[in-house]
Amino acid sequence: MTTLSGYLRTAFRWQRGRQGSGYDKMLLLTARWPLPFDSYLIRYPEGSAIPPHTDPVQTGRHYRLNIVVKASPRGGEFICATPIWQSRRIKFFRPDACEHSVTRVEGGSRYVLSVGWVLKDRPT
């Protein structure tokens, strides 16, 4: 998002998520400075799932903190082989470095607050 008008056109509106897996996302807040970040509310309706994937970035290290606001009655489990830290409702991981997925949501919907940022690699 490069302009305020671009942000205002997309913020607080449901949009289809990637991977064609049935989830929706709503941009809440984003900024490029001082630390590039984005924050979304993600809605997983019944029957949606996300296949295993990574989210590569051009440079740096991508971090994401997901907080489960509303769990589904069954399914909708976040799967990540090497999370940085996780509990039942909080998942902190590197989406660029760790393959991750969400199992099929059954019996209701699931909502997640997701905040992500990219740290630039430091010169060695």
UniProtKB/TrEMBL annotation:
It comes from the Bacteria. This is Fe2OG dioxygenase domain-containing protein.
